[in-house]
Write a sequence for this structure.
């Protein structure tokens, strides 16, 4: 198997940024070292910062992304903290995937901090996703706590492994699941960032899980070799 050089990865990340209509690639700098991509520059909204990060992760050969892009609001994207807070409340109340009455937000200079208690890790993540693309938001700190549930670690592990077994790409054969007091550790090898995100997303729906420690390693060549491709 031939691994991509840092220069090849950089060229492909830049192409992916040009392809993504949500991003102006001229605003983003790309540095690559041993498969780790660092994004620099500045954009006028938080959504674009995340879009650039997602674009970099889509490129084969990228192991991790350090997103150092600054958000500098301009023009009609500027909102007062009070306006953002009011909008957040409406967004949560309209979102059927999150318990709005249990989620509280604090907005300071465009930065949103979420606090409160939810029942599932997936609700914690859905609440943060609801905030990311709002005008005026510069960033999000998610302090939502997943409520403890009485469920045995072995039962949690069995539920997660069963969910992975249902995947058509045989991910369960490559992934080790460890559960300690509601904290799940995933280790093993995945093909790409999309597969990693899908696996972590599957775990977030398991009852009793409040934290996921991601020790998954992206290596499409090793996965292909293991499957005899």
């Amino acid at each position: 198997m031939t691994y991509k050089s840092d220069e090849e990865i950089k060229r492909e990340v830049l192409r992916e940024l040009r392809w993504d209509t949500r991003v102006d690639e001229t605003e983003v700098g790309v540095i690559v070292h041993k498969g780790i991509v660092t994004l620099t520059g500045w954009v006028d909204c938080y959504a674009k910062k995340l879009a650039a990060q997602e674009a970099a992760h889509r490129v084969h050969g990228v192991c991790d992304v350090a997103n150092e892009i600054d958000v500098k609001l301009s023009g009609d994207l500027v909102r007062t903290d009070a306006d953002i807070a009011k909008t957040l409340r409406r967004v949560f109340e309209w979102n059927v995937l999150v318990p709005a009455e249990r989620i509280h937000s604090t907005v300071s200079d465009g930065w949103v901090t979420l606090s409160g208690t939810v029942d599932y890790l997936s609700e914690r993540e859905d609440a943060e996703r609801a905030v990311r693309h709002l005008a005026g938001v510069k960033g999000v700190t998610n302090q939502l706590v997943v409520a403890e549930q009485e469920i045995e670690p072995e039962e949690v592990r069995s539920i997660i492994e069963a969910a992975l077994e249902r995947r058509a790409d045989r991910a369960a054969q490559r992934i080790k699941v460890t559960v300690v007091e509601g904290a799940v550790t995933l280790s093993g090898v995945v093909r790409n960032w999309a597969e990693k995100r899908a696996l972590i997303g599957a775990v977030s729906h398991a009852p009793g899980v409040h934290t996921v420690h991601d020790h998954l390693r992206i290596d499409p060549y090793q996965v292909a070799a293991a499957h005899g491709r």
